[in-house]
Amino acid sequence: MNNESTDIFKDTLDSVKTSIKQSGLIAKLLPLENNNRIFAAYKLPEKQISLIAEVPTKFVKFEKQFESKGFSVTNKKKDTNNDVTQVIISLIDNNYKDVFFEITELFIKKIKNIKDDRDFYNILIERIEIYSNFFDKHSKQGLLINAQQGLYAELDIMENFFIKYFNIPLTLEMWQAPQSGLHDFTYKGVSMEVKSTHKFPAQDVSISSEFQLNDKRVSNLYLAVLEVKRGSIGGESIREKIEKIRELIASQNSELNTKFNDLLNKYGYYDAHSHNYYVSFKTNLVHYYKVVENFPRILPDRILDGVKSIRYKIDLNKCVNFITEGSSIKQNFKDVV
Length: 337
Known about the structure:
This protein has 337 residues and is of the alpha+beta class. 33% of the residues lie in helices and 26% in strands. It contains 8 helices and 13 strands. The protein has a 6-stranded antiparallel sheet with strand order 1-2-3-6-5-4. A 5-stranded mixed sheet has the order 7-8-10-11-13. It has a two-stranded antiparallel sheet with strand order 9-12.
Protein backbone atom coordinates (compact mmCIF):
# COMPACT_ATOMS: atom_id res chain seq x y z
CA MET A 1 0.00 0.00 0.00
CA ASN A 2 1.19 3.53 -0.74
CA ASN A 3 2.06 5.19 2.56
CA GLU A 4 0.88 8.51 1.16
CA SER A 5 -2.66 7.20 0.70
CA THR A 6 -5.24 9.64 1.99
CA ASP A 7 -7.38 6.67 3.13
CA ILE A 8 -4.71 4.65 4.90
CA PHE A 9 -6.87 4.02 7.98
CA LYS A 10 -9.93 3.00 5.98
CA ASP A 11 -7.87 0.82 3.63
CA THR A 12 -6.23 -0.95 6.57
CA LEU A 13 -9.56 -1.41 8.30
CA ASP A 14 -11.02 -2.97 5.15
CA SER A 15 -8.25 -5.58 5.27
CA VAL A 16 -9.02 -6.64 8.86
CA LYS A 17 -10.57 -10.12 8.78
CA THR A 18 -13.29 -10.86 11.32
CA SER A 19 -15.75 -13.65 12.03
CA ILE A 20 -18.93 -13.93 14.08
CA LYS A 21 -17.13 -16.19 16.58
CA GLN A 22 -14.60 -13.52 17.57
CA SER A 23 -14.86 -10.99 20.39
CA GLY A 24 -12.72 -8.15 21.68
CA LEU A 25 -10.45 -6.05 19.49
CA ILE A 26 -9.24 -7.39 16.16
CA ALA A 27 -6.51 -5.01 15.04
CA LYS A 28 -4.02 -4.47 12.26
CA LEU A 29 -0.96 -2.22 12.34
CA LEU A 30 -1.10 0.71 9.94
CA PRO A 31 1.53 0.38 7.19
CA LEU A 32 3.41 3.57 8.02
CA GLU A 33 7.18 3.84 8.03
CA ASN A 34 8.60 3.01 11.49
CA ASN A 35 5.08 2.62 12.89
CA ASN A 36 4.60 0.28 15.81
CA ARG A 37 1.86 2.03 17.76
CA ILE A 38 -1.15 2.90 15.56
CA PHE A 39 -3.74 0.27 14.62
CA ALA A 40 -7.03 0.06 12.74
CA ALA A 41 -9.41 -2.27 14.53
CA TYR A 42 -12.89 -3.63 14.94
CA LYS A 43 -14.36 -4.04 18.41
CA LEU A 44 -16.36 -7.27 18.37
CA PRO A 45 -19.06 -8.50 18.54
CA GLU A 46 -20.48 -4.99 17.93
CA LYS A 47 -18.03 -4.50 15.04
CA GLN A 48 -17.36 -0.94 16.13
CA ILE A 49 -14.76 0.85 14.02
CA SER A 50 -11.82 1.70 16.27
CA LEU A 51 -8.46 3.42 16.27
CA ILE A 52 -5.87 2.10 18.71
CA ALA A 53 -2.87 4.22 19.69
CA GLU A 54 -0.21 2.85 22.02
CA VAL A 55 1.48 5.36 24.33
CA PRO A 56 3.74 5.16 27.40
CA THR A 57 1.59 4.54 30.47
CA LYS A 58 3.35 7.32 32.40
CA PHE A 59 1.82 9.95 30.07
CA VAL A 60 -1.80 8.84 30.41
CA LYS A 61 -3.67 11.22 32.71
CA PHE A 62 -7.32 10.90 31.67
CA GLU A 63 -10.05 8.57 32.95
CA LYS A 64 -10.22 4.96 31.80
CA GLN A 65 -13.43 5.46 29.82
CA PHE A 66 -15.70 8.23 28.62
CA GLU A 67 -18.41 8.31 26.03
CA SER A 68 -19.66 11.16 23.86
CA LYS A 69 -22.67 11.34 21.55
CA GLY A 70 -21.07 9.40 18.71
CA PHE A 71 -17.86 7.84 19.99
CA SER A 72 -16.15 6.44 23.06
CA VAL A 73 -12.60 6.49 24.38
CA THR A 74 -11.16 3.80 26.63
CA ASN A 75 -7.65 3.04 27.77
CA LYS A 76 -6.06 -0.04 29.22
CA LYS A 77 -2.57 -1.26 29.91
CA LYS A 78 -1.24 -3.59 27.24
CA ASP A 79 -1.48 -7.23 28.29
CA THR A 80 2.12 -7.97 27.34
CA ASN A 81 3.67 -4.73 28.64
CA ASN A 82 2.22 -2.63 31.48
CA ASP A 83 4.50 0.26 30.55
CA VAL A 84 2.39 0.72 27.42
CA THR A 85 -1.24 1.85 27.44
CA GLN A 86 -3.63 1.32 24.56
CA VAL A 87 -5.92 4.30 23.92
CA ILE A 88 -8.95 3.02 21.99
CA ILE A 89 -11.21 5.44 20.13
CA SER A 90 -14.37 3.70 18.91
CA LEU A 91 -17.19 4.93 16.68
CA ILE A 92 -20.56 4.06 18.25
CA ASP A 93 -22.86 5.79 15.75
CA ASN A 94 -22.24 4.77 12.13
CA ASN A 95 -24.15 7.81 10.89
CA TYR A 96 -20.93 9.69 11.63
CA LYS A 97 -18.61 7.19 9.93
CA ASP A 98 -17.37 9.50 7.16
CA VAL A 99 -16.49 12.25 9.62
CA PHE A 100 -14.77 9.73 11.92
CA PHE A 101 -12.63 8.60 8.98
CA GLU A 102 -11.83 12.19 8.06
CA ILE A 103 -10.68 13.15 11.56
CA THR A 104 -8.68 9.93 11.86
CA GLU A 105 -6.90 10.30 8.52
CA LEU A 106 -5.86 13.84 9.43
CA PHE A 107 -4.52 12.57 12.77
CA ILE A 108 -2.44 9.98 10.93
CA LYS A 109 -1.01 12.65 8.62
CA LYS A 110 -0.02 14.74 11.62
CA ILE A 111 1.74 11.97 13.56
CA LYS A 112 3.30 9.80 10.87
CA ASN A 113 6.69 11.51 11.26
CA ILE A 114 6.49 12.12 15.02
CA LYS A 115 9.05 10.09 16.95
CA ASP A 116 8.87 11.70 20.40
CA ASP A 117 6.40 9.85 22.65
CA ARG A 118 5.21 12.97 24.47
CA ASP A 119 4.57 14.85 21.23
CA PHE A 120 2.67 11.84 19.93
CA TYR A 121 0.54 11.70 23.08
CA ASN A 122 -0.21 15.43 22.99
CA ILE A 123 -1.38 15.23 19.37
CA LEU A 124 -3.53 12.22 20.28
CA ILE A 125 -5.22 14.16 23.09
CA GLU A 126 -5.79 17.10 20.76
CA ARG A 127 -7.43 14.73 18.27
CA ILE A 128 -9.71 13.30 20.97
CA GLU A 129 -10.81 16.87 21.74
CA ILE A 130 -11.65 17.37 18.05
CA TYR A 131 -13.72 14.16 18.04
CA SER A 132 -15.50 15.36 21.18
CA ASN A 133 -16.13 18.88 19.90
CA PHE A 134 -17.62 17.56 16.68
CA PHE A 135 -19.89 14.95 18.22
CA ASP A 136 -21.08 17.28 20.99
CA LYS A 137 -21.66 20.43 18.92
CA HIS A 138 -22.36 19.60 15.29
CA SER A 139 -25.24 18.00 13.46
CA LYS A 140 -25.08 15.12 11.02
CA GLN A 141 -25.67 17.62 8.21
CA GLY A 142 -22.82 19.98 9.15
CA LEU A 143 -22.82 23.74 9.61
CA LEU A 144 -26.07 25.68 9.50
CA ILE A 145 -26.45 28.58 7.08
CA ASN A 146 -25.34 31.35 9.48
CA ALA A 147 -22.26 29.37 10.50
CA GLN A 148 -21.47 28.77 6.82
CA GLN A 149 -21.66 32.51 6.18
CA GLY A 150 -19.41 33.20 9.17
CA LEU A 151 -16.81 30.73 7.93
CA TYR A 152 -17.05 32.12 4.40
CA ALA A 153 -16.38 35.64 5.72
CA GLU A 154 -13.25 34.54 7.58
CA LEU A 155 -11.99 32.58 4.58
CA ASP A 156 -12.65 35.54 2.29
CA ILE A 157 -10.59 37.82 4.56
CA MET A 158 -7.95 35.11 4.70
CA GLU A 159 -7.73 34.87 0.91
CA ASN A 160 -8.08 38.51 -0.05
CA PHE A 161 -6.29 40.19 2.82
CA PHE A 162 -3.92 37.96 4.77
CA ILE A 163 -2.74 35.59 2.03
CA LYS A 164 -2.56 38.53 -0.37
CA TYR A 165 -0.26 40.56 1.87
CA PHE A 166 1.45 37.88 3.98
CA ASN A 167 2.77 34.37 3.36
CA ILE A 168 0.59 31.30 3.83
CA PRO A 169 2.37 29.82 6.89
CA LEU A 170 2.01 33.15 8.70
CA THR A 171 -1.64 33.47 7.66
CA LEU A 172 -2.46 30.03 9.08
CA GLU A 173 -0.65 30.96 12.28
CA MET A 174 -2.67 34.18 12.51
CA TRP A 175 -6.04 32.42 12.07
CA GLN A 176 -7.03 31.82 15.68
CA ALA A 177 -10.82 31.52 15.39
CA PRO A 178 -10.82 27.70 15.04
CA GLN A 179 -8.76 27.41 18.20
CA SER A 180 -11.13 29.57 20.24
CA GLY A 181 -8.70 32.44 20.10
CA LEU A 182 -9.50 35.79 21.66
CA HIS A 183 -9.88 37.26 18.14
CA ASP A 184 -10.29 35.71 14.68
CA PHE A 185 -6.88 36.77 13.35
CA THR A 186 -4.08 37.87 15.64
CA TYR A 187 -0.32 38.26 15.63
CA LYS A 188 1.97 39.85 18.19
CA GLY A 189 -0.66 42.13 19.66
CA VAL A 190 -2.44 43.13 16.44
CA SER A 191 -5.87 41.54 15.99
CA MET A 192 -8.83 41.50 13.62
CA GLU A 193 -12.34 40.36 14.46
CA VAL A 194 -14.44 39.35 11.42
CA LYS A 195 -18.22 39.76 11.23
CA SER A 196 -20.67 39.43 8.36
CA THR A 197 -24.21 40.40 7.48
CA HIS A 198 -26.46 39.51 4.55
CA LYS A 199 -28.51 42.70 4.99
CA PHE A 200 -27.71 45.61 2.66
CA PRO A 201 -26.49 48.10 3.55
CA ALA A 202 -24.90 46.74 6.70
CA GLN A 203 -26.81 48.11 9.69
CA ASP A 204 -25.67 46.03 12.63
CA VAL A 205 -23.68 42.95 13.56
CA SER A 206 -23.94 40.51 16.46
CA ILE A 207 -21.20 40.29 19.07
CA SER A 208 -21.15 36.97 20.91
CA SER A 209 -19.32 37.94 24.10
CA GLU A 210 -17.88 40.80 26.09
CA PHE A 211 -14.39 39.71 25.01
CA GLN A 212 -14.72 39.94 21.22
CA LEU A 213 -14.29 43.71 21.06
CA ASN A 214 -12.07 44.00 24.11
CA ASP A 215 -8.86 45.74 23.06
CA LYS A 216 -7.30 45.76 26.53
CA ARG A 217 -5.16 42.67 25.91
CA VAL A 218 -3.88 43.70 22.47
CA SER A 219 -2.10 46.78 21.16
CA ASN A 220 -4.43 47.25 18.18
CA LEU A 221 -7.84 45.73 17.43
CA TYR A 222 -9.77 46.03 14.18
CA LEU A 223 -13.27 44.97 13.20
CA ALA A 224 -13.94 43.82 9.62
CA VAL A 225 -17.61 43.72 8.60
CA LEU A 226 -18.43 41.98 5.32
CA GLU A 227 -21.66 42.56 3.42
CA VAL A 228 -22.27 39.07 2.04
CA LYS A 229 -24.80 38.20 -0.66
CA ARG A 230 -26.40 34.79 -0.30
CA GLY A 231 -27.35 32.78 -3.38
CA SER A 232 -25.50 35.22 -5.60
CA ILE A 233 -24.63 34.52 -9.24
CA GLY A 234 -20.87 34.31 -9.39
CA GLY A 235 -20.66 33.48 -5.70
CA GLU A 236 -18.98 30.52 -4.00
CA SER A 237 -20.17 27.90 -1.57
CA ILE A 238 -17.89 27.33 1.40
CA ARG A 239 -16.89 24.04 -0.24
CA GLU A 240 -15.75 25.93 -3.34
CA LYS A 241 -14.01 28.62 -1.29
CA ILE A 242 -12.12 25.98 0.68
CA GLU A 243 -11.04 24.12 -2.47
CA LYS A 244 -9.81 27.42 -3.92
CA ILE A 245 -7.67 28.11 -0.86
CA ARG A 246 -6.41 24.52 -0.78
CA GLU A 247 -5.24 24.88 -4.38
CA LEU A 248 -3.55 28.16 -3.51
CA ILE A 249 -1.78 26.54 -0.57
CA ALA A 250 -0.79 23.48 -2.63
CA SER A 251 0.79 25.72 -5.27
CA GLN A 252 3.27 26.89 -2.61
CA ASN A 253 3.54 24.08 -0.07
CA SER A 254 1.08 21.19 -0.20
CA GLU A 255 2.06 19.99 3.29
CA LEU A 256 0.47 23.12 4.76
CA ASN A 257 -2.93 21.81 3.68
CA THR A 258 -2.72 19.37 6.58
CA LYS A 259 -2.61 22.33 8.97
CA PHE A 260 -5.38 24.12 7.06
CA ASN A 261 -7.60 21.02 7.14
CA ASP A 262 -6.90 20.61 10.84
CA LEU A 263 -8.03 24.19 11.49
CA LEU A 264 -11.17 23.59 9.42
CA ASN A 265 -11.99 20.52 11.51
CA LYS A 266 -11.57 22.52 14.70
CA TYR A 267 -13.89 25.15 13.24
CA GLY A 268 -16.49 22.45 12.53
CA TYR A 269 -16.06 21.97 8.78
CA TYR A 270 -15.68 18.42 7.43
CA ASP A 271 -15.45 17.32 3.81
CA ALA A 272 -17.91 14.53 4.60
CA HIS A 273 -20.62 17.23 4.79
CA SER A 274 -19.52 19.11 1.68
CA HIS A 275 -22.49 17.91 -0.40
CA ASN A 276 -24.76 19.83 2.00
CA TYR A 277 -23.00 23.13 1.33
CA TYR A 278 -24.67 24.37 -1.84
CA VAL A 279 -25.61 27.96 -0.87
CA SER A 280 -23.29 30.45 -2.57
CA PHE A 281 -21.86 33.57 -0.95
CA LYS A 282 -20.27 36.66 -2.43
CA THR A 283 -18.73 39.63 -0.64
CA ASN A 284 -20.24 42.92 -1.72
CA LEU A 285 -18.28 45.32 0.51
CA VAL A 286 -15.85 45.15 3.43
CA HIS A 287 -16.02 47.83 6.12
CA TYR A 288 -13.06 48.22 8.47
CA TYR A 289 -13.21 49.84 11.92
CA LYS A 290 -10.56 50.53 14.53
CA VAL A 291 -11.76 49.51 17.98
CA VAL A 292 -10.55 52.14 20.45
CA GLU A 293 -11.88 54.15 23.38
CA ASN A 294 -15.59 55.05 23.01
CA PHE A 295 -16.23 52.43 20.31
CA PRO A 296 -19.77 51.08 20.97
CA ARG A 297 -19.33 47.81 22.88
CA ILE A 298 -19.67 45.99 26.18
CA LEU A 299 -16.43 45.31 28.05
CA PRO A 300 -15.73 42.76 30.83
CA ASP A 301 -14.94 45.40 33.46
CA ARG A 302 -18.35 47.02 32.94
CA ILE A 303 -20.38 43.91 33.74
CA LEU A 304 -21.94 43.45 37.17
CA ASP A 305 -21.24 40.32 39.19
CA GLY A 306 -23.75 37.57 38.48
CA VAL A 307 -23.99 38.14 34.73
CA LYS A 308 -22.63 34.98 33.14
CA SER A 309 -22.86 35.55 29.40
CA ILE A 310 -23.30 38.49 27.06
CA ARG A 311 -24.59 38.64 23.49
CA TYR A 312 -25.48 41.94 21.85
CA LYS A 313 -25.59 43.91 18.60
CA ILE A 314 -23.77 47.07 17.62
CA ASP A 315 -25.30 49.75 15.41
CA LEU A 316 -22.81 50.37 12.60
CA ASN A 317 -24.34 53.79 11.97
CA LYS A 318 -22.87 54.79 15.33
CA CYS A 319 -19.42 53.55 14.30
CA VAL A 320 -18.70 55.86 11.35
CA ASN A 321 -16.12 57.84 13.32
CA PHE A 322 -14.08 54.67 13.73
CA ILE A 323 -13.90 53.69 10.04
CA THR A 324 -10.37 52.98 8.84
CA GLU A 325 -8.65 51.79 5.67
CA GLY A 326 -7.47 48.27 4.92
CA SER A 327 -4.08 49.71 3.94
CA SER A 328 -3.45 51.05 7.44
CA ILE A 329 -4.42 47.69 8.95
CA LYS A 330 -2.05 45.96 6.55
CA GLN A 331 0.76 48.26 7.63
CA ASN A 332 -0.03 47.71 11.30
CA PHE A 333 0.30 43.94 10.84
CA LYS A 334 3.45 44.35 8.76
CA ASP A 335 5.03 46.42 11.52
CA VAL A 336 4.96 43.41 13.86
CA VAL A 337 5.82 40.67 11.36
